[in-house]
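Sample entry (240 residues):
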Amino acid sequence: MITISEIASMIDHSILHPTLNDDDLKKHCEIALKYKVATVCVKPYHVSMAAALLKGSNVGVCAVIGFPHGNSSIDVKVFETQQVCHDEANEVDMVVNIGKVLQGDWNYISAEIKSIHDACLNNGAILKVIFETDFLRNDQDKINLCNICSIYKVEFVKTSTGYGFIKGSDGKYYYQGATEHDLKLMRQNCITSIKIKAAGGIRTLDQLLKVREWGANRIGASATAEIMEEAIKRFPYDKL
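Predicted structure, serialized as tokens:
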């Protein structure tokens, strides 16, 4: 039986929408503190402020790198990683260069992941590598990413940014996010020490529990309050 505290420890509270400002950060850090989640996941310029707001708590600070499209050069991603670590980020969520994945330039992707992971290790942070699975139609690309992450023993692999929209033939944009197929594929093809973060479309307690069944150890969510309030109602014998 899962506990409320274990549910909270699975959540990286996402504060990443482009329109969110400093006042929003303060409000969402209060939510993170209330529910004692694992981290707040923030934009790079918000790391210092988030660290100050969460000082003295057990809620960590997770920064996104090359977000959301992964297009920065390796050197820029390394610099960005070093900067957010200097600003007191404990965890780093980095988007791979998706174009290089799709063209099969695995030497580039290997060098990128190694460089960012080394920068994290040198600064006492853990790395989550974001695949952006909605853009990867070929399972072999996902497996290759798992294999590279396994070689370098990164701490987490992650499905999505939450912003990987696909334009349909009707001109509208669609998004799946974390799926059963991808989570099980990632679990099967990563070494056991690597944990899995599911992100994209997880807005309820039932969805959290489902992705946990599929192998996820952490989720990215903006609907933290809704998930935690449902957990408190469902497990009244338990408490944070």
